[in-house]
Amino acid sequence: MLENYLDYRLILVIQKYRGKSNASFSGAVWRNFSMKKEGRDMAKKIAVLVRDRQAEAIRMAVGLTLADDEVNVFMMDKKIDLDDEAVALNVETLNDLDVKIYSNNPENKFEQMSTEDIARALPKYDTVLPY
Prior knowledge:
Elements: H1 2-18, H2 27-34, E1 36-37, E2 40-41, E3 45-50, H3 54-64, E4 70-75, H4 85-96, E5 100-103, E6 111-112, H5 115-121, E7 127-130
Helix pairs in contact: 3-4
């Protein structure tokens, strides 16, 4: 019931925002709407947790930077496979984009955080993507 109400309210807000009676919108329109608050652009905070699918997770983190959101990467438990060309290229790209990469594994040459510190940091993010 609550979900239906929220969907209805969302449609009404989008209709008002777009000035149309029919609510058809694209992701770009929704992103522009959802990021504005009191006339300021609001960046989302996104955490990417990397465990098993390192290449896919790092690639996704690079893609998430396109929306000008704050993206941080957390390498969990395993050593990162920098011998994999895709992983190495995307890690280099993340570094060039000033994305912070943290790890709880001392073998990784990123800023170190304990698992407990990472767990305490995650509630501060709008979205957490586990891989």
